[in-house]
Amino acid sequence: MAPSQREASPKLKAAMEECKDKINTTIENLIPETDMTESPLFEAMRYSVLNGGKRLRAFMVIEGAKIFGVNPSRARRVAAAVECMHSYSLVHDDLPIMDNADMRRGKPALHKAFDEQTALLAGDALQALAFEIVSSDETHEDPRVRAELALQLASAVGMNGMCCGQMLDLIGETEKFDVGTISRLQRLKTGKLISFACEAGAILGKTNPAHRQALRNYAHNLGLAFQVTDDILDFEGDEEEMGKPKGQDAKKATFVTTMGSDQARQRAEMLVGQAKMHLHVFDEHRVSLLKELADYVLERRQ
Amino acid sequence: MAPSQREASPKLKAAMEECKDKINTTIENLIPETDMTESPLFEAMRYSVLNGGKRLRAFMVIEGAKIFGVNPSRARRVAAAVECMHSYSLVHDDLPIMDNADMRRGKPALHKAFDEQTALLAGDALQALAFEIVSSDETHEDPRVRAELALQLASAVGMNGMCCGQMLDLIGETEKFDVGTISRLQRLKTGKLISFACEAGAILGKTNPAHRQALRNYAHNLGLAFQVTDDILDFEGDEEEMGKPKGQDAKKATFVTTMGSDQARQRAEMLVGQAKMHLHVFDEHRVSLLKELADYVLERRQ
Lengths: 302, 302
Description:
Two copies of one chain form a homodimer.
Chain A: H1 10-30, H2 39-49, H3 56-67, H4 72-94, E1 103-104, E2 107-108, H5 110-113, H6 116-134, H7 143-157, H8 162-171, H9 179-204, H10 209-236, H11 239-242, H12 255-259, H13 261-277, H14 284-299
Antiparallel strand pairs in A: 1-2
């Protein structure tokens, strides 16, 4: 991939920055500092979730919720839950028994900054916290919405979602997968949580099934595009910009190792085009940032 | 502790056996076998949850639900969720970076039977599955009940519950705790999930707050009694009956290491007496097995 000079538009950039700040405040309030004996658990959770991530998933929740006029403070809670879930997956993934990654976003990984036991527990507690947030009545007054959020979130990250994708990822270290299996792996490993993030606004807004489906389709394509660009970045990105060493996935089955980086890039472009098409059912001005986000995924450098 | 010859009454024994069989069937249906590439994840989850445990927590859910005439198949789903959650905690706890326990209930621990990566993922997926079960409409038609189950379960196992207890447990390996802190540790580490198990029937039965509180109080005392007897068994139990080596907790702060086994035993007896007292608000015949269960906790040998 020739390094693109394109960046997120000023409008998208500003919206993403604002989202990041607000979500960080929400998370800081949800994981309080404490001076109790167990404080390392809380510090570790905060360290891993408040580590300067781009909050792409949170942004999806926030923008999806805006389409349906959802109360922003509710959307932020769900966005925070998704970020907690995402962080837990990174923390466990970085552990020495998994990817053994020492660095994460330019800082020591959680098990390096603390220790492996604390990292394991902090990951476990972050998963539980995500469910605690979505099922709380502060997130929505309608219990049907809360139960649906919990159900869809659980389904996105469990044995038929993220954990299944992780398992396939492990197996892919020794088994050669075709493009179909890699697509399925990525759909499970990262795509399902991204789908939840995009769909959550529609659940909060109690909208019709067609609108929910449109957001799911958008997310499906965007999630795959995201993973393809991730593979490309791992293959040829700038280590300093990414904050982690590249080539970490070289031994694994990825889109790049399977189809080469040129074809992978074409595929990502096609997926982003399809993602944007699914948003046609909504008023243009309500989804302009989600469309820009899709383009940004294609052009991101980290 | 002089080894007691008392055993569970035939009635309690039969009820517990029946519960065990039915819960195992429920779990087998919830975690299907598969011939897909990811099958090791599903096998590992089944291996850890279907490993011959006594299903004390499931029994608490079932018996609690009976008080309020809850549909048994719904109660079994919640009981299965609690057992999945309990299993996940054992699997992560047994990992080499934590307790490094090779054996669990007389069989190789999950990370020995499979590998550490699969054990980590299976634990993660079991936690998610527990939430997926309770928030599904197959568990209750009233979304308020489903959301409340998810919320209470999350609160029981997260940063203010089980994970916090685990963190204290780790810290207790190097720091000397007083009895108050050990009580708090145990309340968090095992007590909160036991409380959820006892309270779940009341949530499913949509009963009044006083009844919910009574079951919570019963669980609080029973949970502590359970932990005290666990510490006693670890200190002087029969390795063959327990299926794991004893003395594993000798380096940790436990009730036995802090107050000695005689005093610990007295404390367990007092707690069981208090637990049974809280059940007085219910019809005697509806709670007779829960009372017997409390006595059994005191007398159990494994």
